[in-house]
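Hallway conversation turned thread

IA: we were arguing at lunch whether anyone had actually written out Sec-independent protein translocase protein TatA end to end. Turns out nobody had. So, for the record, here is the sequence (114 residues) and right after it the structure tokens. Reply here if something looks off.
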Amino acid sequence: MGNFGTSEILIVLVVVLLLFGSAKLPQLARSLGKSVRILKAETKGLREDEETAAQPAAASPSDPRQEAARLREEAARLEREAAAADGTPQRRPLPSGEPIQGVPVSDPNKIRNS
């Protein structure tokens, strides 16, 4: 029952091709890959949560500023990973005085956020 031969695998592939069509298969494979990546990340996060719960509370940083900086770095890393997974371009900070669409600005972040 559990032994699939080449002919059975080919039959399954033909049925999948007929059900989804050749245009939908790349999209289906992409979404399956994203789902697997998310599942792996979540299981890794659960393992890390269990490990940190097992560690004593003395291991936590005493300075809230250091913890806030670490959290900001972690959020930036997660945003970069999400952007890479979605295929959206990453935003880079503009240096002060760089022209935006040919117009020099003193504070580019004010223009970008509005």
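OS: looked through it. The chain has a mean pLDDT of 77.
IA: good, adding that to the notes. Helices lie at 6-20, 25-54, 64-86, 108-113.
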